[in-house]
């Protein structure tokens, strides 16, 4: 039935439920499929969602489900997903592996399931574990095309008690018929010599799609009226006493050897009080997403020692993939030193220009342990932020799309914006700089210093005869002060996929100071400017604790995208931008000016320090095809071109 108005009262409520797909996937270890209906681990089906998409003869009873596996649907002219070809072989193989190994499959029922007869008060309800008993192929007789589809029959694993989704008015039902004498007979095909069950009430047919007699019925049978037989639906499989894994996970517990940002602590939870699934939205705790429930599971991260960061860096540098940078031919590289930093300055060409002009640059300021250990340096920022993120301000995940809807998706990282308001996919609340701790202001100060150097050096490179490529006219020749800072927190396995910072409210320069675990950053040309739909890295480099990355040039974000992948268990990133006040409405502009006003910074956190040597070193330019970064911090570059030096 397709209307919630005709649904009846269910026997009970699900033990586990969710209103949001991401919450469901975050909380359940056996189902993490954010889009597809089937979830697998090591090519074995572990969980399945039955919801909006159904096919002819799909069936749901108290203990048995017959459902169609995915694949073969495409969007039609009206935007609906409709059958356009045969079902996919891949999900069938995964389900076959589960059936042959007697592996239980967790099943979730969605409230958009057209065959649902009961009222489901939540978007999703967990039905429990089922076993796959049968897999077969049949034709989709709802259309004249007759595409082949794969069907599976699932049987409830625990049949000792009523199912919550059965209608209350139907009790008693078929519970307890596991000792039923019903059995669908087998028959062998004379064409392919393979057996098939008699699944239809009208009689037997070969259900092997590669057989010449596949799905052949007598002429008297109208295949549009096919129905499954009572024997097939009511037969039960004797399995004895099988110990099933826990369907409802307990909230994660931080053990003595954990620091609180490991992947085990990054998952969602099933609320032990109401059964609702919730994402981990806050840096220091879980909060049940059910408005009627007050459950909070505290998970304050422990301090992450600098020794752990150094160990992560050593482990990362042991991998050649981390040490080696990808630099596509045509990207020029300039190197120089300033105030203890060694800088790799990449010049990005216009991919649509036959005589490539430089449309922007990416400068990577590589720090050292000595620089990081200075008063108010990266080490002090790291220690301060670890405390401040659990006491002075809270990092949290914000919606990245479909805010407020059941399909809402949160960012992978945790964040807090400072200064002028910044719309990151959706507007996020911003705190004024006057409320920011000194460590945040120190990060902003250091990013400004590096940003000024990077812009100055780009002009020296492009106008000082160090490259034959012309600088695009869109590239700003002057640095514009930052008035916004986005503080980001990453736990283990968190990352930002390919995106751009091309909002029309942003100035030409974006700076990021990295603190904590090492990471890798990559750039790709947007697919619309290439001959391929695949996003291929054209620039990829590693950076570590205390390093700063400066992107300069608005057209970088028009033509390129970038991503960041941390290689450890905890990282903070302080990303600074200039929000162009003239692009904001009067109210927002006033807010941006007020919140972007900077308080004084103490000498401890100020940078550069009095007496520091900020003189720029020589610039060396190279047209590279590969850059190898050795663990010692020395960088060996191989190139067919000969680098040249020039004093700026």
UniProtKB/TrEMBL annotation:
What biological-process terms (Gene Ontology) are attached? DNA alkylation repair
Locations of Basic and acidic residues compositional bias?
Answer: 638-648
Source organism: Colletotrichum trifolii
- Write out the transmembrane intervals: none
Q: Which GO terms describe its molecular function?
A: broad specificity oxidative DNA demethylase activity; cytosine C-5 DNA demethylase activity; ferrous iron binding
Gene3D superfamilies named in the record? Alpha-ketoglutarate-dependent dioxygenase AlkB-like, SRA-YDG
Q: Which PANTHER family match?
A: ALPHA-KETOGLUTARATE-DEPENDENT DIOXYGENASE ALKB HOMOLOG 2, FE2OG DIOXYGENASE DOMAIN-CONTAINING PROTEIN
Q: Where is this region: Disordered?
A: 612-648
Domain named Fe2OG dioxygenase: which ranges? 481-580
Q: Which one Pfam family would you cite for this protein?
A: 2OG-FeII_Oxy_2
Please tell me where 2-oxoglutarate binds in this chain: 490, 499, 562, 571, 575, 577
Quote the InterPro entries the UniProt record gives: AlkB-like (IPR027450), AlkB-like_sf (IPR037151), ALKBH2 (IPR032852), Oxoglu/Fe-dep_dioxygenase_dom (IPR005123), SRA-YDG_sf (IPR036987)
Q: What is this protein called?
A: Fe2OG dioxygenase domain-containing protein
């Amino acid at each position: 039935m397709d209307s919630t108005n005709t649904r009846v009262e269910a026997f009970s409520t699900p033990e586990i439920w969710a209103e949001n797909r991401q919450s469901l996937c975050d909380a359940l270890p056996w189902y993490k499929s954010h889009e597809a209906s089937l979830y697998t681990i090591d090519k074995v089906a572990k969980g399945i969602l039955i919801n909006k998409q159904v096919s002819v003869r799909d069936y749901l009873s108290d203990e048995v489900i017959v459902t169609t596996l995915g694949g073969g649907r495409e969007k039609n002219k009206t935007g609906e997903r409709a059958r356009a070809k045969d079902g996919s072989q891949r999900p069938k193989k995964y389900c076959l592996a589960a059936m042959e190994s007697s592996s239980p499959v967790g099943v979730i029922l969605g409230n958009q399931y057209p065959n649902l007869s009961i009222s489901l008060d939540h978007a999703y309800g967990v039905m429990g574990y089922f076993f796959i008993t049968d897999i077969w192929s049949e034709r989709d007789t709802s259309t004249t095309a007759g595409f082949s589809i794969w069907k599976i029959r699932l049987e409830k694993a625990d049949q000792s008690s009523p199912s919550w989704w059965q209608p209350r008015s139907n009790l008693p039902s078929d519970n307890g018929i596991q000792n039923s004498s019903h059995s669908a007979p087998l028959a062998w095909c004379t064409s392919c010599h393979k057996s098939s069950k008699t699944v239809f009430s009208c009689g037997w047919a070969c259900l092997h799609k590669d057989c010449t007699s596949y799905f052949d019925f007598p002429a008297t049978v109208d295949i549009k009226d096919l129905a499954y037989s009572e024997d097939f639906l009511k037969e039960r499989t004797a399995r004895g006493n099988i110990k099933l894994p826990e369907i409802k996970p307990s909230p994660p517990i931080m053990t003595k050897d954990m620091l609180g940002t490991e992947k085990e602590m990054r998952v969602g939870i099933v609320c032990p009080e109401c059964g609702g699934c919730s994402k981990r939205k806050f840096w220091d705790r879980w909060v049940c997403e059910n408005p009627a429930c007050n459950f909070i599971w505290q998970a304050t991260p422990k301090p992450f020692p600098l020794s752990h960061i150094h160990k992560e860096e050593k482990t990362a540098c042991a991998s050649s993939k981390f040490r080696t940078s990808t630099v596509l031919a045509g990207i020029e590289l300039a190197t120089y030193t300033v105030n203890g930093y060694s800088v790799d300055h990449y010049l990005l060409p216009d991919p649509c220009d036959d005589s490539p002009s430089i449309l922007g640059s990416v400068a990577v300021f590589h720090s050292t342990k000595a620089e990081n250990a200075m008063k108010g340096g990266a080490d002090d920022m790291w220690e301060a932020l670890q405390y401040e993120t659990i006491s002075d301000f809270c990092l949290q995940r914000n919606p990245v799309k479909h805010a407020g809807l059941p399909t809402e998706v949160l960012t992978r990282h945790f964040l807090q914006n400072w200064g002028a308001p910044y719309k990151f996919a959706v507007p996020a609340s911003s705190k004024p700089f006057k409320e920011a701790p000194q460590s945040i202001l120190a990060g902003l100060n250091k990013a400004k210093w590096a940003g000024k150097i990077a812009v100055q050096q780009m002009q020296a490179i492009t106008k000082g005869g160090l490259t034959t490529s012309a600088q695009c006219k869109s590239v700003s020749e002057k640095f514009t002060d930052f008035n916004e800072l986005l503080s980001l927190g990453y736990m283990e396995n968190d990352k930002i996929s390919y995106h751009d910072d091309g909002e029309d409210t942003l100035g030409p320069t974006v700076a990021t100071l990295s603190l904590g675990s090492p990471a890798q950053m990559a750039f790709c040309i947007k697919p619309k400017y290439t001959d391929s739909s695949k996003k291929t890295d054209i620039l990829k480099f590693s950076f570590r604790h205390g390093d700063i990355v400066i992107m300069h040039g608005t057209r970088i974000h028009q033509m390129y995208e970038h991503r960041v992948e941390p290689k450890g268990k905890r990282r903070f990133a302080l990303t600074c931008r200039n929000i162009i006040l003239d692009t904001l409405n009067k109210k927002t502009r006033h807010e941006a000016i007020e919140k972007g006003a900077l308080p004084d910074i103490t000498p401890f956190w100020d940078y550069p320090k009095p007496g520091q040597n900020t003189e720029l070193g020589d610039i060396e330019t190279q047209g590279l095809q590969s850059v190898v970064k050795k663990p010692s911090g020395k960088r060996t570059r191989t190139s067919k071109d000969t680098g040249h030096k020039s004093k700026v």
